[in-house]
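User: What would this chain look like folded?
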Amino acid sequence: MVFFRMSLNRKIDGNYKILLIVFFILVSSGRIYAQEMWGIVSSNFAGSNGVIINPSSLTGSKLYMDVNILTADFYAGNNYLYIHSEDFKLFNFLKKDPEFPSYDPDNSAMDYYDNTSIKSGYVNVLLRGPSFFQQRGRHAIGLSTGVRVLASANRLPYDLANFGYLGLKYEPQHNINYNDHNFYGNTMEFAELGITYAYIVRQFSVDEFSVGITLKGLFGYSGGYVYADNLDYMVLNDSTANFRNLNAEVGFSIPVDYETNNFPDGSGLFRGNGVGADIGFTYQRKVRSFQKRKYDKLCRQRYIDYIYKVGVSLIDFGFVSFTKNTQLHAFENVSRYWVNIDTIAYSNMNQLMGELSDVFYGDPDASYRGDKMSVFLPAAVSIQLDYHIYRNWYINATAIHPIILGKSTIARPAQVVAVPRFETSRWEFSLPVALYEWKQLHFGIAARWEFLTIGSDNLGGLLGLQDFTGMDIYFSVKFNFRKGKCHGDNRFRPCYNQEYGIERK
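Assistant: Here's the prediction, encoded as C-alpha coordinates.
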Protein backbone atom coordinates (compact mmCIF):
# COMPACT_ATOMS: atom_id res chain seq x y z
CA MET A 1 0.00 0.00 0.00
CA VAL A 2 2.95 2.31 0.56
CA PHE A 3 3.75 2.03 -3.15
CA PHE A 4 0.40 3.56 -4.12
CA ARG A 5 0.69 6.45 -1.68
CA MET A 6 4.15 7.29 -3.00
CA SER A 7 3.13 6.94 -6.64
CA LEU A 8 0.24 9.40 -6.74
CA ASN A 9 0.68 12.75 -8.55
CA ARG A 10 3.43 11.59 -10.88
CA LYS A 11 3.88 9.97 -14.26
CA ILE A 12 4.22 6.21 -14.09
CA ASP A 13 7.90 5.28 -14.04
CA GLY A 14 8.96 2.67 -16.60
CA ASN A 15 10.15 0.29 -13.90
CA TYR A 16 6.59 -0.10 -12.65
CA LYS A 17 4.53 -0.11 -15.83
CA ILE A 18 4.09 -3.85 -16.14
CA LEU A 19 3.32 -4.26 -12.42
CA LEU A 20 0.55 -1.71 -12.77
CA ILE A 21 -0.80 -3.27 -15.94
CA VAL A 22 -1.17 -6.61 -14.19
CA PHE A 23 -2.97 -4.71 -11.46
CA PHE A 24 -0.81 -3.78 -8.59
CA ILE A 25 1.40 -6.63 -7.55
CA LEU A 26 1.20 -5.41 -3.99
CA VAL A 27 4.58 -6.55 -2.76
CA SER A 28 8.00 -6.42 -4.33
CA SER A 29 8.95 -9.23 -6.67
CA GLY A 30 10.82 -12.10 -5.12
CA ARG A 31 10.58 -14.94 -2.68
CA ILE A 32 10.35 -13.45 0.78
CA TYR A 33 10.81 -15.98 3.50
CA ALA A 34 8.55 -15.98 6.49
CA GLN A 35 9.93 -16.41 9.93
CA GLU A 36 8.28 -17.13 13.23
CA MET A 37 10.76 -15.88 15.88
CA TRP A 38 12.04 -19.41 16.43
CA GLY A 39 14.35 -18.31 19.22
CA ILE A 40 11.26 -17.21 21.18
CA VAL A 41 8.33 -19.48 20.36
CA SER A 42 10.23 -22.79 20.71
CA SER A 43 11.27 -22.08 24.32
CA ASN A 44 9.65 -23.47 27.47
CA PHE A 45 9.76 -19.85 28.69
CA ALA A 46 7.83 -18.51 25.67
CA GLY A 47 4.71 -18.11 27.80
CA SER A 48 2.16 -15.86 26.10
CA ASN A 49 4.32 -15.72 22.95
CA GLY A 50 4.09 -19.48 22.56
CA VAL A 51 0.48 -19.23 21.38
CA ILE A 52 1.78 -17.79 18.09
CA ILE A 53 2.69 -21.33 17.01
CA ASN A 54 0.39 -23.43 19.25
CA PRO A 55 -2.18 -22.12 21.80
CA SER A 56 -2.06 -25.36 23.84
CA SER A 57 1.56 -24.58 24.78
CA LEU A 58 0.39 -22.44 27.72
CA THR A 59 -0.24 -25.44 29.97
CA GLY A 60 3.23 -26.87 29.38
CA SER A 61 5.17 -23.70 30.16
CA LYS A 62 7.78 -23.47 32.92
CA LEU A 63 5.96 -20.25 33.84
CA TYR A 64 2.70 -19.92 35.70
CA MET A 65 2.34 -16.32 34.49
CA ASP A 66 4.05 -13.73 32.35
CA VAL A 67 3.46 -10.12 31.32
CA ASN A 68 4.56 -9.15 27.83
CA ILE A 69 5.47 -5.49 27.45
CA LEU A 70 6.52 -5.53 23.80
CA THR A 71 7.50 -8.21 21.33
CA ALA A 72 8.54 -7.07 17.87
CA ASP A 73 9.40 -8.97 14.72
CA PHE A 74 10.70 -7.29 11.55
CA TYR A 75 11.41 -9.40 8.49
CA ALA A 76 11.95 -8.75 4.79
CA GLY A 77 13.86 -10.69 2.17
CA ASN A 78 13.66 -12.00 -1.39
CA ASN A 79 15.39 -14.15 -4.00
CA TYR A 80 15.04 -11.76 -6.93
CA LEU A 81 16.83 -8.58 -5.85
CA TYR A 82 20.03 -8.80 -3.84
CA ILE A 83 23.34 -7.23 -2.87
CA HIS A 84 26.42 -9.32 -3.50
CA SER A 85 27.92 -10.70 -0.30
CA GLU A 86 31.26 -8.98 -0.94
CA ASP A 87 29.50 -5.62 -1.40
CA PHE A 88 27.32 -5.71 1.70
CA LYS A 89 28.62 -3.69 4.63
CA LEU A 90 25.96 -3.28 7.31
CA PHE A 91 27.55 -0.26 8.97
CA ASN A 92 27.75 1.56 5.63
CA PHE A 93 23.97 1.32 5.36
CA LEU A 94 23.43 2.60 8.91
CA LYS A 95 25.32 5.85 8.34
CA LYS A 96 23.58 9.20 8.17
CA ASP A 97 24.29 9.17 4.43
CA PRO A 98 24.06 5.46 3.55
CA GLU A 99 26.50 4.06 1.00
CA PHE A 100 25.01 1.61 -1.49
CA PRO A 101 26.72 -0.35 -4.25
CA SER A 102 25.88 0.26 -7.90
CA TYR A 103 24.83 -2.36 -10.42
CA ASP A 104 23.80 -2.36 -14.04
CA PRO A 105 21.40 -1.47 -15.46
CA ASP A 106 20.88 2.16 -14.53
CA ASN A 107 23.31 1.99 -11.58
CA SER A 108 20.71 0.28 -9.45
CA ALA A 109 21.39 -0.27 -5.74
CA MET A 110 20.55 -3.98 -6.07
CA ASP A 111 21.35 -6.68 -8.59
CA TYR A 112 18.80 -9.28 -9.71
CA TYR A 113 18.85 -13.05 -10.12
CA ASP A 114 18.62 -13.78 -13.83
CA ASN A 115 16.74 -17.08 -13.83
CA THR A 116 13.35 -18.40 -14.91
CA SER A 117 12.10 -19.58 -11.53
CA ILE A 118 8.66 -18.62 -10.28
CA LYS A 119 8.78 -15.73 -7.80
CA SER A 120 6.77 -15.72 -4.62
CA GLY A 121 7.06 -13.87 -1.35
CA TYR A 122 5.94 -13.15 2.17
CA VAL A 123 6.48 -10.17 4.49
CA ASN A 124 5.77 -10.27 8.20
CA VAL A 125 5.95 -7.37 10.66
CA LEU A 126 4.56 -7.96 14.14
CA LEU A 127 4.24 -5.63 17.11
CA ARG A 128 2.81 -7.62 19.99
CA GLY A 129 1.73 -5.18 22.69
CA PRO A 130 0.61 -5.64 26.29
CA SER A 131 -0.26 -9.31 26.75
CA PHE A 132 -0.25 -11.86 29.53
CA PHE A 133 -1.16 -15.39 30.50
CA GLN A 134 -1.82 -17.21 33.76
CA GLN A 135 -2.12 -20.89 34.55
CA ARG A 136 -4.27 -22.31 37.36
CA GLY A 137 -3.91 -26.04 37.57
CA ARG A 138 -5.27 -27.60 34.42
CA HIS A 139 -6.53 -24.27 33.08
CA ALA A 140 -4.61 -21.47 31.40
CA ILE A 141 -5.90 -18.24 29.94
CA GLY A 142 -4.19 -15.46 28.05
CA LEU A 143 -4.95 -12.07 26.51
CA SER A 144 -3.00 -10.48 23.70
CA THR A 145 -2.89 -7.28 21.68
CA GLY A 146 -0.93 -6.61 18.54
CA VAL A 147 -0.46 -4.88 15.21
CA ARG A 148 0.52 -6.82 12.10
CA VAL A 149 1.62 -5.95 8.57
CA LEU A 150 1.45 -8.88 6.15
CA ALA A 151 2.06 -9.14 2.43
CA SER A 152 2.61 -11.96 -0.02
CA ALA A 153 3.23 -12.50 -3.72
CA ASN A 154 2.76 -15.99 -5.09
CA ARG A 155 3.61 -17.63 -8.39
CA LEU A 156 4.79 -14.37 -9.93
CA PRO A 157 6.32 -15.23 -13.34
CA TYR A 158 9.94 -14.26 -13.89
CA ASP A 159 9.06 -12.29 -17.03
CA LEU A 160 6.83 -9.92 -15.06
CA ALA A 161 9.47 -9.54 -12.36
CA ASN A 162 12.03 -8.59 -15.00
CA PHE A 163 9.73 -6.11 -16.73
CA GLY A 164 8.79 -4.68 -13.37
CA TYR A 165 12.39 -4.06 -12.34
CA LEU A 166 14.12 -3.47 -15.68
CA GLY A 167 11.26 -1.77 -17.51
CA LEU A 168 9.67 -2.37 -20.89
CA LYS A 169 13.03 -1.56 -22.48
CA TYR A 170 14.35 -5.01 -21.50
CA GLU A 171 15.02 -6.24 -25.04
CA PRO A 172 15.79 -9.94 -24.29
CA GLN A 173 12.05 -10.37 -23.56
CA HIS A 174 10.74 -8.43 -26.55
CA ASN A 175 8.64 -10.24 -29.16
CA ILE A 176 8.17 -13.31 -26.98
CA ASN A 177 4.66 -14.51 -26.20
CA TYR A 178 4.20 -15.12 -22.47
CA ASN A 179 1.13 -16.95 -21.21
CA ASP A 180 1.05 -16.74 -17.39
CA HIS A 181 -1.53 -18.28 -15.07
CA ASN A 182 -2.70 -18.14 -11.45
CA PHE A 183 -0.44 -15.56 -9.82
CA TYR A 184 -1.57 -13.33 -7.02
CA GLY A 185 -0.49 -10.75 -4.47
CA ASN A 186 -2.06 -9.70 -1.17
CA THR A 187 -1.38 -7.26 1.62
CA MET A 188 -3.06 -6.19 4.85
CA GLU A 189 -2.33 -3.97 7.84
CA PHE A 190 -4.47 -4.62 10.92
CA ALA A 191 -4.72 -4.68 14.70
CA GLU A 192 -5.79 -7.74 16.66
CA LEU A 193 -7.17 -8.49 20.11
CA GLY A 194 -7.05 -12.11 21.18
CA ILE A 195 -8.07 -14.38 24.03
CA THR A 196 -6.57 -17.84 24.54
CA TYR A 197 -7.81 -20.75 26.62
CA ALA A 198 -5.84 -23.96 27.14
CA TYR A 199 -6.80 -27.03 29.17
CA ILE A 200 -5.07 -30.23 30.24
CA VAL A 201 -7.66 -32.82 29.25
CA ARG A 202 -5.82 -35.82 30.68
CA GLN A 203 -2.99 -36.51 33.12
CA PHE A 204 -2.28 -40.16 33.69
CA SER A 205 1.00 -41.68 34.78
CA VAL A 206 3.64 -40.06 32.54
CA ASP A 207 1.20 -38.98 29.81
CA GLU A 208 -0.29 -35.50 29.50
CA PHE A 209 -2.69 -34.26 26.80
CA SER A 210 -3.70 -30.61 26.39
CA VAL A 211 -5.73 -28.53 23.93
CA GLY A 212 -5.91 -24.80 23.33
CA ILE A 213 -7.74 -22.25 21.23
CA THR A 214 -7.21 -18.57 20.48
CA LEU A 215 -10.01 -16.35 19.20
CA LYS A 216 -9.10 -12.96 17.75
CA GLY A 217 -10.96 -9.85 16.76
CA LEU A 218 -9.32 -8.23 13.72
CA PHE A 219 -9.51 -4.54 12.82
CA GLY A 220 -8.31 -3.74 9.29
CA TYR A 221 -6.44 -0.50 8.64
CA SER A 222 -5.80 -1.19 4.95
CA GLY A 223 -5.65 -4.11 2.56
CA GLY A 224 -5.64 -5.17 -1.03
CA TYR A 225 -5.23 -8.08 -3.37
CA VAL A 226 -4.79 -8.97 -7.02
CA TYR A 227 -5.49 -12.31 -8.64
CA ALA A 228 -4.72 -13.05 -12.26
CA ASP A 229 -6.13 -16.25 -13.68
CA ASN A 230 -4.48 -15.58 -17.03
CA LEU A 231 -2.21 -12.99 -18.63
CA ASP A 232 -1.36 -13.76 -22.27
CA TYR A 233 0.81 -10.96 -23.65
CA MET A 234 3.78 -9.88 -25.75
CA VAL A 235 5.92 -6.76 -25.36
CA LEU A 236 7.02 -5.58 -28.81
CA ASN A 237 9.18 -2.64 -27.74
CA ASP A 238 9.48 -0.10 -24.94
CA SER A 239 6.18 1.57 -25.87
CA THR A 240 3.96 -1.19 -27.29
CA ALA A 241 2.42 -4.32 -25.77
CA ASN A 242 -0.13 -6.76 -27.11
CA PHE A 243 -2.43 -8.10 -24.38
CA ARG A 244 -4.06 -11.11 -26.01
CA ASN A 245 -6.02 -12.09 -22.94
CA LEU A 246 -6.32 -10.76 -19.41
CA ASN A 247 -8.52 -12.33 -16.76
CA ALA A 248 -7.87 -10.70 -13.38
CA GLU A 249 -9.45 -9.22 -10.27
CA VAL A 250 -8.19 -6.52 -7.94
CA GLY A 251 -9.50 -5.01 -4.71
CA PHE A 252 -8.09 -2.35 -2.42
CA SER A 253 -8.98 -0.35 0.66
CA ILE A 254 -6.41 2.25 1.72
CA PRO A 255 -6.57 5.42 3.85
CA VAL A 256 -6.35 7.79 0.87
CA ASP A 257 -9.13 9.74 -0.79
CA TYR A 258 -9.22 8.26 -4.28
CA GLU A 259 -10.18 11.59 -5.88
CA THR A 260 -8.25 14.25 -3.90
CA ASN A 261 -5.35 12.14 -2.53
CA ASN A 262 -6.10 13.44 0.98
CA PHE A 263 -4.53 11.34 3.70
CA PRO A 264 -6.22 10.06 5.76
CA ASP A 265 -9.38 9.69 3.74
CA GLY A 266 -11.88 10.44 6.52
CA SER A 267 -13.40 6.97 6.81
CA GLY A 268 -12.00 6.40 10.30
CA LEU A 269 -9.06 4.46 11.68
CA PHE A 270 -10.32 1.07 10.52
CA ARG A 271 -11.87 0.23 7.17
CA GLY A 272 -12.77 -3.37 7.95
CA ASN A 273 -13.37 -5.94 10.67
CA GLY A 274 -12.97 -9.68 10.92
CA VAL A 275 -12.20 -12.69 13.07
CA GLY A 276 -9.34 -15.13 13.39
CA ALA A 277 -8.64 -18.36 15.25
CA ASP A 278 -5.81 -20.74 16.18
CA ILE A 279 -6.30 -24.20 17.62
CA GLY A 280 -3.71 -26.64 18.94
CA PHE A 281 -3.08 -29.97 20.64
CA THR A 282 -0.02 -31.12 22.62
CA TYR A 283 1.06 -34.50 24.01
CA GLN A 284 3.88 -34.72 26.57
CA ARG A 285 5.77 -37.77 27.77
CA LYS A 286 6.87 -36.79 31.27
CA VAL A 287 10.05 -37.88 33.07
CA ARG A 288 7.99 -39.20 35.99
CA SER A 289 4.40 -39.88 36.96
CA PHE A 290 2.00 -37.14 37.81
CA GLN A 291 0.69 -37.06 41.38
CA LYS A 292 -2.16 -34.74 42.22
CA ARG A 293 -1.29 -32.33 45.04
CA LYS A 294 -2.94 -29.16 46.21
CA TYR A 295 -1.12 -25.84 46.11
CA ASP A 296 -1.83 -22.77 48.22
CA LYS A 297 -0.25 -20.29 45.81
CA LEU A 298 -0.13 -20.05 42.03
CA CYS A 299 3.64 -19.95 42.20
CA ARG A 300 3.70 -23.36 43.93
CA GLN A 301 2.26 -25.11 40.91
CA ARG A 302 4.51 -27.98 39.91
CA TYR A 303 6.45 -28.25 36.71
CA ILE A 304 7.35 -31.80 35.66
CA ASP A 305 9.82 -31.92 32.81
CA TYR A 306 9.28 -34.08 29.76
CA ILE A 307 11.24 -36.55 27.69
CA TYR A 308 9.56 -35.29 24.54
CA LYS A 309 6.42 -33.50 23.47
CA VAL A 310 4.51 -33.38 20.19
CA GLY A 311 2.16 -30.63 19.08
CA VAL A 312 -0.19 -30.10 16.14
CA SER A 313 -1.83 -26.77 15.41
CA LEU A 314 -3.88 -24.85 12.85
CA ILE A 315 -2.87 -21.19 12.93
CA ASP A 316 -4.08 -17.93 11.42
CA PHE A 317 -7.47 -19.04 10.20
CA GLY A 318 -9.56 -15.95 9.57
CA PHE A 319 -10.24 -12.92 7.41
CA VAL A 320 -10.94 -9.19 7.41
CA SER A 321 -13.92 -7.87 5.47
CA PHE A 322 -13.30 -4.33 4.18
CA THR A 323 -16.40 -2.18 3.68
CA LYS A 324 -15.10 1.41 3.88
CA ASN A 325 -13.26 3.24 1.11
CA THR A 326 -13.11 -0.04 -0.77
CA GLN A 327 -13.13 -0.77 -4.50
CA LEU A 328 -13.31 -4.10 -6.30
CA HIS A 329 -12.50 -4.31 -10.02
CA ALA A 330 -12.50 -7.18 -12.51
CA PHE A 331 -11.06 -7.53 -16.01
CA GLU A 332 -12.73 -10.58 -17.48
CA ASN A 333 -11.05 -12.07 -20.55
CA VAL A 334 -10.28 -8.70 -22.13
CA SER A 335 -7.62 -7.88 -24.74
CA ARG A 336 -5.88 -4.82 -26.15
CA TYR A 337 -3.10 -3.93 -28.57
CA TRP A 338 -1.68 -1.05 -26.57
CA VAL A 339 0.43 1.52 -28.41
CA ASN A 340 2.21 4.24 -26.41
CA ILE A 341 1.78 2.36 -23.17
CA ASP A 342 4.70 4.38 -21.80
CA THR A 343 2.65 7.59 -21.87
CA ILE A 344 0.02 6.49 -19.36
CA ALA A 345 -0.12 8.83 -16.36
CA TYR A 346 -2.39 9.32 -13.39
CA SER A 347 -2.84 11.72 -10.50
CA ASN A 348 -5.20 9.73 -8.26
CA MET A 349 -6.52 6.20 -7.82
CA ASN A 350 -9.85 6.85 -9.50
CA GLN A 351 -8.08 8.21 -12.56
CA LEU A 352 -5.75 5.21 -12.68
CA MET A 353 -8.53 2.63 -12.46
CA GLY A 354 -10.67 4.61 -14.90
CA GLU A 355 -7.79 4.74 -17.36
CA LEU A 356 -7.19 0.98 -17.18
CA SER A 357 -10.91 0.25 -17.47
CA ASP A 358 -11.17 2.55 -20.48
CA VAL A 359 -8.19 0.88 -22.17
CA PHE A 360 -9.59 -2.64 -21.86
CA TYR A 361 -13.35 -2.01 -21.92
CA GLY A 362 -13.72 1.35 -23.64
CA ASP A 363 -15.59 2.56 -20.57
CA PRO A 364 -13.91 4.06 -17.43
CA ASP A 365 -16.57 2.52 -15.16
CA ALA A 366 -16.92 -0.95 -16.68
CA SER A 367 -14.35 -2.69 -14.47
CA TYR A 368 -16.01 -1.65 -11.19
CA ARG A 369 -17.63 -4.57 -9.33
CA GLY A 370 -18.47 -3.23 -5.86
CA ASP A 371 -17.38 -1.60 -2.61
CA LYS A 372 -16.58 -4.69 -0.50
CA MET A 373 -13.80 -7.26 -0.37
CA SER A 374 -12.19 -9.73 2.06
CA VAL A 375 -8.54 -10.60 2.67
CA PHE A 376 -7.65 -13.90 4.38
CA LEU A 377 -4.93 -14.47 6.98
CA PRO A 378 -1.88 -16.67 6.18
CA ALA A 379 -3.43 -19.91 7.42
CA ALA A 380 -1.17 -22.92 7.98
CA VAL A 381 -0.91 -26.32 9.63
CA SER A 382 2.06 -26.89 11.93
CA ILE A 383 3.64 -29.92 13.62
CA GLN A 384 6.09 -29.47 16.49
CA LEU A 385 8.42 -31.96 18.18
CA ASP A 386 10.51 -30.99 21.19
CA TYR A 387 13.02 -33.40 22.71
CA HIS A 388 14.76 -33.02 26.08
CA ILE A 389 18.32 -34.11 25.35
CA TYR A 390 20.04 -33.79 28.74
CA ARG A 391 19.59 -31.45 31.70
CA ASN A 392 19.20 -27.95 30.21
CA TRP A 393 19.67 -29.03 26.61
CA TYR A 394 16.68 -29.32 24.25
CA ILE A 395 16.03 -29.46 20.54
CA ASN A 396 12.88 -28.42 18.72
CA ALA A 397 11.82 -29.42 15.20
CA THR A 398 8.83 -27.71 13.57
CA ALA A 399 7.23 -27.90 10.15
CA ILE A 400 4.75 -25.37 8.74
CA HIS A 401 2.73 -25.81 5.56
CA PRO A 402 0.44 -23.07 4.18
CA ILE A 403 -3.28 -23.50 3.55
CA ILE A 404 -4.76 -21.33 0.78
CA LEU A 405 -8.34 -20.39 1.65
CA GLY A 406 -9.04 -18.33 -1.47
CA LYS A 407 -7.60 -16.05 -4.13
CA SER A 408 -7.23 -13.22 -1.61
CA THR A 409 -5.25 -15.31 0.89
CA ILE A 410 -1.97 -13.98 2.26
CA ALA A 411 0.12 -17.11 1.75
CA ARG A 412 3.08 -17.93 3.97
CA PRO A 413 5.80 -20.25 2.62
CA ALA A 414 6.41 -23.79 3.79
CA GLN A 415 9.29 -24.18 6.19
CA VAL A 416 11.07 -26.77 8.33
CA VAL A 417 13.23 -25.68 11.24
CA ALA A 418 15.47 -27.24 13.89
CA VAL A 419 16.23 -25.22 17.04
CA PRO A 420 18.83 -26.63 19.45
CA ARG A 421 18.87 -24.63 22.66
CA PHE A 422 20.25 -24.36 26.17
CA GLU A 423 17.73 -22.90 28.59
CA THR A 424 17.70 -21.94 32.24
CA SER A 425 15.37 -19.66 34.17
CA ARG A 426 17.74 -16.69 33.84
CA TRP A 427 19.23 -17.10 30.41
CA GLU A 428 18.85 -19.05 27.20
CA PHE A 429 20.75 -19.53 23.96
CA SER A 430 19.48 -21.07 20.70
CA LEU A 431 20.69 -21.62 17.12
CA PRO A 432 17.73 -21.92 14.70
CA VAL A 433 18.43 -23.60 11.35
CA ALA A 434 15.59 -23.37 8.83
CA LEU A 435 14.84 -24.69 5.36
CA TYR A 436 12.40 -22.42 3.51
CA GLU A 437 10.22 -23.67 0.69
CA TRP A 438 12.39 -26.82 0.62
CA LYS A 439 15.14 -24.83 -1.11
CA GLN A 440 17.05 -22.25 0.88
CA LEU A 441 18.90 -22.82 4.14
CA HIS A 442 19.01 -20.06 6.75
CA PHE A 443 20.65 -20.05 10.15
CA GLY A 444 20.14 -17.70 13.08
CA ILE A 445 20.89 -17.03 16.71
CA ALA A 446 18.83 -15.90 19.71
CA ALA A 447 19.63 -15.17 23.34
CA ARG A 448 17.48 -14.47 26.40
CA TRP A 449 18.57 -12.87 29.65
CA GLU A 450 15.85 -12.58 32.30
CA PHE A 451 13.17 -10.39 30.67
CA LEU A 452 14.93 -9.57 27.37
CA THR A 453 15.23 -11.74 24.25
CA ILE A 454 17.00 -10.69 21.05
CA GLY A 455 17.46 -12.80 17.95
CA SER A 456 17.53 -13.26 14.20
CA ASP A 457 16.63 -16.26 12.09
CA ASN A 458 18.71 -15.14 9.10
CA LEU A 459 22.28 -14.06 9.84
CA GLY A 460 23.97 -15.15 6.61
CA GLY A 461 23.35 -11.93 4.73
CA LEU A 462 24.14 -9.66 7.67
CA LEU A 463 27.50 -11.36 8.19
CA GLY A 464 28.38 -11.36 4.51
CA LEU A 465 28.38 -15.15 4.32
CA GLN A 466 25.80 -15.13 1.53
CA ASP A 467 24.11 -12.62 -0.76
CA PHE A 468 22.10 -10.03 1.13
CA THR A 469 18.44 -10.61 0.24
CA GLY A 470 16.82 -9.08 3.30
CA MET A 471 16.99 -8.42 7.00
CA ASP A 472 15.46 -10.16 10.00
CA ILE A 473 15.47 -9.18 13.67
CA TYR A 474 13.17 -9.72 16.63
CA PHE A 475 13.13 -8.94 20.31
CA SER A 476 10.88 -9.43 23.30
CA VAL A 477 10.57 -7.62 26.62
CA LYS A 478 8.42 -9.52 29.10
CA PHE A 479 8.43 -10.45 32.76
CA ASN A 480 8.40 -14.12 33.65
CA PHE A 481 6.97 -15.73 36.80
CA ARG A 482 8.35 -19.22 37.14
CA LYS A 483 6.60 -22.20 38.65
CA GLY A 484 8.15 -23.09 41.98
CA LYS A 485 9.56 -19.62 42.66
CA CYS A 486 7.45 -17.72 45.17
CA HIS A 487 7.64 -14.22 46.56
CA GLY A 488 8.08 -13.87 50.29
CA ASP A 489 9.95 -11.91 52.90
CA ASN A 490 10.65 -9.13 50.38
CA ARG A 491 12.65 -11.45 48.10
CA PHE A 492 12.16 -14.35 45.75
CA ARG A 493 12.92 -17.69 47.32
CA PRO A 494 12.79 -20.85 45.22
CA CYS A 495 10.86 -23.87 46.42
CA TYR A 496 13.73 -26.36 46.23
CA ASN A 497 11.94 -29.57 45.44
CA GLN A 498 11.98 -31.90 42.49
CA GLU A 499 8.20 -31.69 42.25
CA TYR A 500 8.71 -28.10 41.10
CA GLY A 501 11.29 -29.11 38.55
CA ILE A 502 14.06 -27.40 40.55
CA GLU A 503 17.04 -29.14 42.06
CA ARG A 504 19.22 -27.65 44.78
CA LYS A 505 22.63 -26.69 43.38
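The longest strand covers residues 207-237. If you want, I can go into more detail on any region.
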